[in-house]
Amino acid sequence: MASYRFPLVVGPGPLERADRLEGDASPEEVVVAYHERTKHHFHRFAASLGYMDWATQPDPFRRYLGADLVRLPLPPTGRPLPYWQLYAIGTVPPEPLSLESVSLFFRYALSLTAWKRFHETTWSLRANPSSGDLHPTEGYAVLPAIERLGDTSAVYHYAPREHALERRAVLDASLWTELVAPFPKGSFLVGLSSVHWREAWKYGERAFRYCQHDVGHALATMRIAAAALGWRLVLLDGVGDDAISRFLGLGRDEDFGEAEREEPELLALIAPALSSAVPRYLNEAKVDGSGVLWQGKANTLSPEHGFEWPVIDAVARATRHFGNRSITEDFSRFPAEEELFGIPVRQGLLTAEKAIFGRRSAVAMDGSTAISQAAFFRMLARLIPTREGRSMPWDAIPWRPRIHLGLFVHRVDGLSPGLYALPRDPDKLAILKEQMRREFRWQRVPTCPPGLPFYLLQEGDCRALAARVSCGQDIAGDGAFSLGMIADYMDNLVTYGAAFYRNLFWEAGVVGQVLYLEAEEAGVRSTGIGCYFDDPVHEVFGIAARKWQSFYHFTVGGPVEDVRLTTLPAYGAERQVPAKPTLQWPAQV
Question: Alpha-carbon distance 215 to 510, whole Å?
């Protein structure tokens, strides 16, 4: 997401005090209380420090000091794989698991893509976008013995600045064999965690939301990277957070000391092929961390914190997943690819690599660029799972869409400006009609493909309205279109428990990542907007009850480039890797 400024904010106002958020409340009640207290309103913003305490700015790069650092060979640039082929499951031959393929996976998923410089200040951009460029998400891999990587199976932490893997733990060979026995040959595991402090430093109590957005973006970038290698990825939603923490070493007091802790988020399986019969859980008795040789101490990211945000810890505790569910839902009523696109997309402008490395968050839109209907409809169609294989990246998550789109269309050729809707689940159309304004037209747009559920709600110039509800930011009105992601919220807390709160943000992040890459392919830019006025957004669409809530905003359009900035390569010439990787790397790029 882009970085935005907003005024000094006072506390939670009439809502409950931070130290009373939990009390005797159920986890679901804690989630609802947190979501309400972290809303932005016209008269006040969610609680934050309100200014940048530069003395405590967190380091965006976690390292485990003392762990072996194995440099990954930088893949040669110019890979010709077309961008559109990422979505054509089964058309990219699976790469064998090797040092080179692991390197390419992380290069596309979580690596640096450029450095930016303004005068004496430099900062990095990554394949996985982040709110405020603060990067709370950390990536891990559990890999078998691979030539030139390691002689044994091991747990690794990915170090993006170095494009390297830190060997955190060596696993017993028999343990690895038992863990992957239910999975296809060539499988391995990847995990994500969050450092809440990195976001809270700037955004205060709302930071937990943004951390979850970032996890969703990273889940999408990993799925897309796997697709580029002909691999599949699926979320292991049957693995509890405690097991993930033990497996990745996140709960080891002796390795963290005073360093900022990492919250376990998810574990995913990557394999050359997957069937619906593949289990989405691990034998948790095998991942208790005992009998494993750990190495490395986490670096401290800030010299001090100055101010803490206990409500973030409270909602994190309330939303932990205990491995007591694995979701299975029916996608048989979803449209086929031909129905969504008219003609399946088999050509395009960019290679996958150019789209992935070229992705940027626009800092401003030009207020004039329009996009074609064809490009617009293709973007929306990419956001709908299909019934045959559910399509990429939606095959990574097992639940039907809970995120639906309320769109502010400004400049799409041949479409009237106004409010539109995209229900991403065919069975939620009637419910959305009931939840939204009675006077909305719900007129099917006749020029869109027959399977695309795109509806005109109300005609009219909504540029000022889009900007107003997005914290007054012109970028929401100056693009070709912007949107709010409306979540089927309360019913899912009841059905799947408080832990599903995170899943809703993850799904929103995946939606956002698809929009980012689709914008690149269309020759425009996109930006995630985390600062929006929650309840005024609901009022625009006539949503009065708490059952549905806005979870993320996005804008797409013609970018205004900041010519004051200098772009530098992600990895300089000194990063060229020798034929035999070493375990040394300088502190700075």
Answer: 9
